[in-house]
Amino acid sequence: MKWLTVAVLAGTALLCASDKKDKAKPAGAQQVDAGSFGVFIRGQRVVTETFTVHQENSISNVKSQLQTIGASQTSQHSDLQMTASGELVRYEWSDGSGSLVVTPNNEFLLEKITASPGAKQAEQPFLMPNTSAILDNNFFVHRQVLAWRYLATNCQTQNGALKCQQGATEFGVLVPQDRTSVRVRMELVGREKVTIRGTERELLRLNLKGESFSWALWVDDKDQFKLMRVLVADDNTEVVRD
């Protein structure tokens, strides 16, 4: 299959549908992805993340909402905007009481935090380039965007097979809710058969690791490399696309 660059996310191209499908799309805003993830702890669904990914005028917009399951329901919202060259335009997060905003500041990043309505706004600068990835707490669509970035910058198709550079690739990322920056590594493991909602599928596995965590991610190379499953074994947590 011939892959084309139809959207640019986190500084790199997203490998998407065929040339014929791309040409049929109207000008203006393009929906790159939309859906939801179910977050399960020990087999019980605890959170649903609903998300959309759009591109318009070389700006990629990734919106997400988290809704907890149970008697005391809570929600969080995030909105990530990036340019076609991967530079952060703006990131916003809110849980209905506190909120934060991250924007570029002289080629670095500045986070502004409001702890509660009416509270004085605090500021925290980060000496990180404005092409750094955003990986905020609990938003799995951010992990999908990072996977797209890794695949587009480190992999290419050869004779119909995906070939990636050997070894893990390191990324500097900002975790806005924690007000911290970290280094993470991503690496392609290869094809694996996994069972999702009772159906066995063959997907590409990526490993995402940091100083204190190790996650397994599975993406579908037959459907725009969409994130289908995440396993956080240490926390008995599984994330599955609905």
Summarize the structure.
This protein is mainly beta. It is built from two helices and 19 strands. It has a domain at 5-62 and 132-241.
Unreliable segments of 5+ consecutive residues: 1-26
Rg, Cα atoms, Å: 18 Å
Helix fraction? under 10%
Strand order of the largest sheet: 10-9-8-7-6-5-4-3-19-18-17-16-15-14-11
How does the overall form come out from the CA principal axes? Answer: globular
What is the beta-strand fraction? over 45%
**First CA to last CA: what distance?**
26 Å
SS-based class: mainly beta
Count of helices? 2
Overall mean confidence score, pLDDT: 87
Give a written overview of the molecule.
By secondary structure, the chain is mainly β. It has a domain at 5-62 and 132-241. It has two helices and 19 strands. The protein has helices at 19-23, 140-154, and strands at 5-9, 12-15, 30-41, 44-56, 59-68, 75-83, 88-94, 99-105, 108-114, 122-126, 133-134, 155-158, 161-164, 169-175, 180-196, 199-209, 214-220, 226-232, 237-241. The strands form three sheets. A 15-stranded mixed sheet has the order 10-9-8-7-6-5-4-3-19-18-17-16-15-14-11, with helices on one face. It has a two-stranded antiparallel sheet with strand order 1-2. The chain is globular.
